Each structure stands twice: as C-alpha cells, then as structure tokens.
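ugh ok fine here u go
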Amino acid sequence: MNSNSNSAQFDLIVIGGGAAGFFTAICFAEKNPGAAVLILESSNDVLGKVRVSGGGRCNVTHHCFEPSALIQHYPRGQKELRGPFSRFGPAETIQWFESHGVPLKTEEDGRMFPRANTSEAVIKLFKQCCRDHNIQIHCSERVELFRPEDIGWFVKSSRAAYLSNALMVATGSDRRTWDILVSMGHHMIAPVASLYTFNISEKALHELSGISVMKAKVSIRHTNYQAEGPLLITHWGLSGPVILKLSAWAARELMELAYKFDIDINWIALSLEHALEQMQNIRQQHSSKLVLNTPLFSLPQRLWRMLLWRSGMNEESNWQSMSASNLRQLASVLCQDHYKVNGKSTYKQEFVTAGGVDLKEINFKRFESRLHPGLFLAGEILNIDALTGGFNFQAAWTGAWIAAEAMSEDLITKG
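structure:
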C-alpha cells in the first residue's frame, strides 16, 4: 500500500448498502470489537430493497430448514449453496434476529416476517448495530475503483481514497461495479429478468382479473419447463407463484425468445383421463343440472363459464345432453388450455435479475474470489437468484455471515 499511505485505513470496507452489505459489516464487527468498518453506498439512502420487500414488511427468510429442500428454491446456485446453508441457514437467521430483538413470525405459506410486521424493524436494527459498533456509513459516495495492493485493498470513491485489509462487494446488478470486476479478470453472466408475470392479450381472460386457482399446472411449449401452484388472473395476463416459478427457472430461455412464447394451462392439475372420469360421474349423478351451474374441481363460477365458452359448450346444456365428444373437448380445455404470451411485467417491486459473477470463480467455503484473495462477494452480485418467499434474502444472510467468519479468521491470522 506504499503509494496510498495517506488514505484512511479500515479493517473492512463494504461496497453496497443493501442486505448483504450491512449483514457482512455487522457480523464482522460483532466478531471483532473495535474493528474499523466502512459501508459505501452510491445512492442517497441504504437498505432500499429491504424497505420495499414483502410489501413493506420484509420477508426475512423462509420456514424451510433442510438444506436439500431449501436449495430447490434456487434456479441458479443450487449446488453451491447446499454447504453454506448447512452452516448458516434459516434456523441460524431466525436465532440471529431473535437474539437482536427482532423476533420473526411464520405465515401459512412458510414466509417469515418480523413480528412487528414492518421492514422498519429490520432497518432500525441494522442501523442500531452500526451505531453500536461504530460502523461508518457513507451515502451518495460511488466507488470508482478498487484494486489489490501489497497488503490489502485500495478503494477510490467519488469523494476519497481508502485502504482496507478486506473488501466485500455487495452491489447487486450495478453495472459499473461489474465493469471493475471484469477489468480484474472476473467473468460476469449477463443479467436477465427473473420473477415477472406473463402478458397475454386475451380479453376473456382480462375480464376475470382477480380470480385465482389454488392449484394449476403451467407448461411452456417446446421446452421442458413446467410448474405447479397457485395461479392468479390479472388485467394484463397471468401471475401468481406458478408463473413466477416459471419466469425464474426459464429466465434465460424466455429472454432469448423475446418473451414471446406459448403456454398450456392445466387449470385443475389433473390428467385428462382423470378429468373425464369425474365428469362422467357427474353426468350420471346430476344429469338434469345445467353444466353452467355445476362448476367442477373447485373452479370459480366465472372462470368455469369462460372455460365452457372456450370448449364450445352451450350455456343451456345440461349434463345429460353432453356427448362423449363434448366431455372430451371440455376436459381438453380444462387440462390443456393454450395461450400466447406476448411480453412480461415486473412483479410488484421485487424485481430480481438472474446473472452476476460466474459461480466457478467463487470459493463458497468463504464467499471469496478465487482470483483475488481478500475480495469477498455476496448477495445478488453473484449469479444466484431464488423464487419469492424470503429465499433471496436468505442467500444474502448466508453469504454475508460466512464471509464475515472468513475475514475474521484472516484478521486473527494477520494480527
């Protein structure tokens, strides 16, 4: 660090004032009382994604404690996260927040939120931890350069120059940071959108906006991608967990298709044969009833009406008048309804990108660059992304905690 001896010196500099950045700084400071830690954030405020996540309640993690089950929620990063989750997973996350005065609650779908039901509980906690450990936070200070020196890292920002023993980069999909990493030899997987809804130009569908189906199966034609789960009809097309799953798992392929592709919807998540069998039973038991007035498979009445229309049924038909051909046509629509997708829409404010630092270049026992010792990376800057439900935050907490552990060991060794 010879040429930069006049720069302010730190034990750890964190670039990026988001979830992964703050958690790294706090965990490191807790393990090393008195350590000099600095967070540099380019925007005028910190923890913006924490503030808006979960509708302003902050979906901290998910009630899924077995690593082998947990990794199934990560389209990218499955193999790499299995080991880290066994060291610091949801159970450890819950314990950490509980021990710091922010108890969590579990909702029916497994998502976990602060019991206070507001993201401000997490933000206040993180800021208080920073005050307790004298962690400096500089907002509106963009990092322009960082590079390894003889005994640490040189960091140049828009306002000053710094030196640090260790460096954590947690800037998400910030392209200027990506450019610096590329100049240092890292390979970046180009970002593509993930977690979005499907736009469908079908007036009959739009008129059912707000209707949901608890269990549907959706397949993307000419691919192997399919998913099962709740489906929501919107005024622009389709949303809900099943659509978000597909958008995540097929993120890169759908981008290459310019978000124009065909899907098949199985509205009842049953085989065509099973659907036919049930309808034949209904025809025998309720022969005189109007088909319109006896929606099957727990489908909402208005959706049932649309599906009858799409199958060419007469609304005045009763079950007795339904021929074998009629029943098969209706079963076909129920189980293989076809739509054309023509574009995507961002899912609420929880926009996630797939892409980032190539995972082959990261040592996941330390969340450290394999190219540059002392350079740590966590959060969405890595080519890791997850489904909704607290999984993206869990990856951030895990990476930050393991990196803080590794940096603490290095500090003791150097000391």
